[in-house]
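[step 3/7] inverse_fold.run input=structure_tokens len=227
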């Protein structure tokens, strides 16, 4: 009887442990913009006028369009069996590579977005910077990660953009792995992730007018057609 009690208790602990663990949702499909070469600035001193030393990660601050619809072409990137996406190193110098996908939760969800890479990178959600990794590692096995807390509203679209700095002198290619780890209680919620997901039209688009393309006013001035 005592042995049965111990086995039952151990089984209960195991089940609790399984319930507390939430399997990550690997984001292994992105669209990548053509690499953009960036130049190291010529500096006459070790610090700038504000007294700040130059950091290689500052090259990520170059302004680039995040609207992939304006690009002439993009390249589909898919991860391997582990979810890692391997990119090419530049022949010389540095290049900034933009990668983008879209997320949509079936119901309200909370969790953390974990991005791992040996290269320097930024994480942007809906165009807003959420995290920045300013160091680079020599190998994939020693790659460090950045974690961003996410709250996903039901059926809302979220654009995830990764901005990587590829270095020709690096000892390994700029690999990257992204995954969404749901918080406890949200692991059963379906999360769609697709770089080619069509954006939905919301009431905010009309009320706030952030993406207005054209307007027409009725002859009596009472109505407006917003496109």
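[step 3/7] decode complete -> sequence:
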């Amino acid at each position: 009887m005592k042995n049965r009690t111990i086995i039952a208790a151990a089984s209960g602990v195991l089940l609790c442990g399984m319930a507390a663990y939430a399997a990550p949702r690997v984001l292994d499909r992105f669209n990548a913009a053509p690499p953009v070469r960036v130049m190291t600035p010529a500096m006459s001193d070790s610090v700038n006028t504000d007294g700040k030393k130059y950091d290689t990660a500052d090259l990520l601050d170059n302004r680039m369009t995040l609207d992939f619809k304006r690009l002439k072409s993009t390249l589909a990137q898919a991860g391997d069996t582990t979810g890692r996406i391997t990119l090419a190193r530049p022949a010389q110098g540095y290049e900034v590579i933009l990668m983008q996908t879209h997320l949509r939760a079936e119901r309200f969800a909370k969790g953390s977005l974990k991005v791992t890479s040996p290269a320097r990178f930024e994480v942007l959600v809906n165009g807003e910077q959420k995290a920045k990794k300013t160091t680079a590692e020599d190998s994939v096995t020693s790659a460090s990660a950045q974690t961003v807390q996410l709250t996903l509203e039901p059926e809302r679209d979220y654009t995830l953009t990764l901005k990587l700095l590829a270095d020709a002198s690096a000892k390994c290619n700029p690999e990257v792995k992204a995954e969404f780890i749901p918080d406890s209680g949200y692991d059963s919620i379906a999360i769609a992730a697709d770089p080619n997901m069509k954006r939905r039209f919301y009431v905010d688009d009309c009320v706030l007018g952030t993406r207005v393309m054209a307007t027409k006013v009725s002859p009596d001035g009472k109505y407006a057609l917003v496109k």
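[step 4/7] annotate
The chain has one domain: 22-41+50-198.
The chain is about 10% helix and 40% strand.
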